[in-house]
């Protein structure tokens, strides 16, 4: 009985598709929109967020028995901030250019609602290992959405993916695709598609 | 860093470098609270006020405490703690001395701590090496720009409510498309002034 609740497969599917943080719950969209102008940025940002969400969920779950209820928000924020600092220092040491391109958005992982949301909704009431899985699953769900948007934007704007030129010189680049408006349009389209697929499967529309 | 007049930064933060339309900050509450003009105006005012105060506090903490001690890497923790503490303090002061304002803004204050626009402005001013006056102008401009965006979206959403939007797009979806169109319109300002 316990097994089914904590089955890794179920947690993964939940985080990546059924309850995808960006498409279904519409949280964490600030960075989704900001860093998707090229694939590499998105991938690094996604990995960073997956790392922070997974480990902070794990840590929060580990100390949930000893955390007084009324200061738990503060404790959660501090735990998250520690992991974000690790990511920031790592990026600055080993990928200085990327760190510069991402600018303040690495620091803004702290206020990314996905992490706080998972901490409150899941890690607070579940054992550490499922919490870790849940955090990672949500992180992956977020990363996939980021990549889906980034692939379209980079391909249209530069004719390349991950900096590798795919389309030849005949391709007329769409400057609009790296401008902010296209990010809004693409995310809206993705949400639309996801809603339609999930509604077809017989789920109740909100 | 080129010396920019604080006034230029102020105007740029409202129009060309709008928090929502070019930096995508504070999107969560932007989508969630933009259903009515009056509530979004209230939130916008609260955000502007908190922005102006926390950017000053964080500026002083960063340049007079963290930099001399070589603790710059701690800025994320320090900034988020100082923002949370400031919001908490503001809530208590308002409740005690200005109950009317407290009840008007009350529900929005806790939301502000997790609004990424607040932390974002503090991080931007460090990255761009603004002086004290420039940071102050930037934070007020960012707040005004954010308010402008959310009030405009609320106005449009009140009209959209009456239209028949495709089922899958209802709610957040159409709000995002609207925002995209508004961002297109705001791109028209980009010739006036530019800060990177």
Order of helices and strands of chain A: HHHHHHHHEEH
Q: Approximately how much helix is present in the residues of chain B?
A: over 70%
Shape of chain A: globular
Q: What percentage of amino acids of chain A are in beta strands? A: under 5%
* Overall pLDDT level of chain A: 85
Gyration radius from CA atoms of chain B, angstroms: 18 Å
Whole-Å distance between the termini of chain B?
11 Å
Largest interface: which pair? A-B, 43 and 43 residues
Structural class of chain B: mainly alpha
Q: Mind explaining what this structure looks like?
A:
The complex is a heterodimer of chains A (206) and B (196). Chain A has 206 residues and is mainly α. Chain A has one domain. Chain A has a two-stranded antiparallel sheet. With 196 residues, chain B is mainly α. Chain B has one domain.
């Amino acid at each position: 009985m316990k097994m089914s609740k904590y089955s890794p497969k179920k947690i993964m599917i939940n985080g990546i598709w059924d309850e995808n943080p960006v498409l279904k719950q519409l949280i964490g969209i600030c960075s989704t929109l900001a860093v998707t102008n090229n694939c590499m940025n998105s991938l690094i940002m996604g990995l960073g967020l997956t790392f922070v969400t997974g480990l902070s969920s794990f840590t929060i779950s580990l100390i949930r028995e000893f955390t007084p209820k009324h200061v738990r928000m503060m404790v959660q924020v501090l735990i998250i901030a520690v992991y974000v600092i690790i990511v920031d220092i790592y990026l600055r040491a080993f990928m200085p250019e990327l760190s510069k391109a991402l600018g303040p958005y690495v620091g803004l992982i702290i206020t990314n609602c996905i992490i706080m949301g998972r901490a409150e909704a899941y890690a607070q009431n579940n054992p550490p290992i499922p919490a870790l899985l849940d955090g990672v699953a949500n992180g992956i769900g977020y990363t996939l959405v980021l990549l889906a948007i980034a692939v379209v934007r980079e391909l249209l704007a530069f004719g390349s993916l991950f900096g590798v030129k795919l389309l030849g010189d005949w391709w007329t680049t769409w400057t609009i695709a790296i401008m902010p408006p296209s990010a809004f349009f693409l995310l809206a389209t993705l949400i639309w598609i996801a809603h339609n697929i999930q509604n077809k499967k017989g789920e109740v529309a909100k | 860093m080129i010396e920019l007049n604080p006034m230029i930064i102020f105007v740029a933060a409202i129009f060309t470098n709008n928090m929502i339309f070019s930096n995508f900050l504070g999107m969560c509450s932007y989508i969630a609270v933009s259903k009515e003009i009056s509530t979004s105006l209230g939130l916008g005012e609260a955000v502007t006020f908190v922005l102006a105060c926390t950017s000053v506090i964080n500026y002083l903490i960063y340049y007079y405490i963290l930099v001399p001690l070589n603790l710059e890497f701690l800025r994320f923790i320090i900034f988020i703690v100082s923002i949370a503490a400031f919001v908490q303090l503001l809530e208590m002061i308002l409740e005690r001395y200005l109950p009317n304002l407290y009840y008007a803004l009350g529900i929005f204050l806790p939301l502000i701590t997790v609004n990424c626009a607040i932390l974002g402005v503090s991080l931007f001013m460090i990255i761009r090496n603004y002086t004290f006056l420039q940071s102050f102008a930037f934070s007020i401009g960012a707040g005004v720009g954010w308010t402008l965006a959310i009030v405009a979206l609320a106005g449009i959403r009140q009209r959209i409510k009456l239209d028949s939007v495709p089922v899958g797009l209802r709610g957040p979806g159409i709000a995002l498309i609207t925002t995209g169109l508004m961002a297109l319109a705001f791109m028209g300002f980009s010739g006036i002034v530019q800060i990177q």
